[in-house]
Polyamine aminopropyltransferase (Luteimonas terrae), 566 residues
Amino acid sequence: MTDANWLYENFDTAGSAIGFRVNKKLDEVQSPFQKIEIYESTDWGNVMLIDGAMMVTTRDNFLYHEMMSHPALFTHAAPKTVVIIGGGDCGTLREVLRHPGVEKAVQCDIDEQVTRMAEKYFPELCESNGDARAEILFDDGIAYMANCAPGSVDIVIVDSTDPVGPAEGLFNKAFFESCHRALKDDGILVQQSESPLVLLDLIKAMRAEMGKAGFTTFQTLPFPQPCYPTGWWSCTLARKGQGFDFREADARAKPFETLYYTADIHKGAQSLPPFVAKALGEG
Amino acid sequence: MTDANWLYENFDTAGSAIGFRVNKKLDEVQSPFQKIEIYESTDWGNVMLIDGAMMVTTRDNFLYHEMMSHPALFTHAAPKTVVIIGGGDCGTLREVLRHPGVEKAVQCDIDEQVTRMAEKYFPELCESNGDARAEILFDDGIAYMANCAPGSVDIVIVDSTDPVGPAEGLFNKAFFESCHRALKDDGILVQQSESPLVLLDLIKAMRAEMGKAGFTTFQTLPFPQPCYPTGWWSCTLARKGQGFDFREADARAKPFETLYYTADIHKGAQSLPPFVAKALGEG
């Protein structure tokens, strides 16, 4: 909803709202899957909404994109093949491709219009789309993972919208089983896992579904994300038994710049607040 | 402003907004200093607003109160005398008094009505108000610090509202000079320092004023705080030359429970994201 020039997202699940002051609506498209809107804000650059939910702002998307990619890529010993399910704004793809060892990164988002809008209004997120290692598909991510060759992928990153609408099927056992089969034995699944303050039940339920699919070790990493409900978000990593020690020396010597991620931020995120650890049975 | 049963705070400085779904307004008082309102929310317990700005919710205040107190108290070698300027909701006082070594904690808030409202709607924050070590004053914090005996205080915590209105005088050189004089040589000043994403200029300006007042070493610690603009907040510690290594073993063995603060969270917060470190000249 909007009030004069303020644009709000009322997040019913948690009874909290996030908003930005905007100058004008720049674009709007109803794709076969969802409504995508772009606003020009006064202080946050451009803002993309999908079905009324804030997805990306120019100003703060680096937090999410860096944390969805670098912790997993520095945890895997030598990631070469990465699949991104969702992620149509291409920001996660850009971060993944910063790792020189990555040989192939497939991005499979069901909605081509998200990428077309990103190219137009968030061109900086799409600057690696022409990388020879990138393959950008517009297709059903559930089918893509189901058809993936077994043991062919090092890291699957599920960069999805909330678990309602098109993304609902990306949070259940059947999908996670496909990911488990596609991943090599030392592979890592990464899923955006919502707010650690108000959606702990969702994180627990998601981990339970991952567990039913065969994953046995989990790590939830919190990070700030102002444009998402409560301003505090998380990603969850799942593996087939391995731990989550990461290549700290490599992370410290990384050959690219970041705005948020560092080896120390990574280590810090690994220490969960007691109320989160307790809820997740790690306390 | 409110829309049906949603209550928003439009934060003009950063062009962002925070909101909560509420059932009803429980109370309202216009004190000589400010308007205090209490709402019952659907998911966040009670919410206190001062002059339209979200101050405290039942659900998430632990983040702020723990981070305003424990990092400083575990950084000081043996804090005995603590002064809290502002902090009328008494939540910071409660956390300070969890430290058995503290012999005296003075809370000086200019507005008695804040404490009266907290006693009624946030009684859990006031549960240590009867502690024999607590002294609760309703007076001008600027005058209190100016009149403090030199070298008499171990830690000053400035738990204030934003630097407009009654709290404006708590962010400048004159006030920080009073704090500097009142603090012992190994003392620590703690100031809530707003959002590390959108208010870096304020943090820099505040550090500059602290510097003019004689403080020479600084540490800004970010933490999540959903009810404040952007959901990402910070406190800044200032000292007279000493560093910020903390009593890690004591923090690990602390004789009280916390929901957010741990020694590892403290260490994690000490590692600033590169964009913050760079802006503060620590990169």
The mean pLDDT of chain B is 95. Residues 107 and 136 of chain B are 5 Å apart (CA to CA). The first helix of chain B runs from residue 61 to 75. Chain B touches chain A through 45 residues (CB under 8 Å).
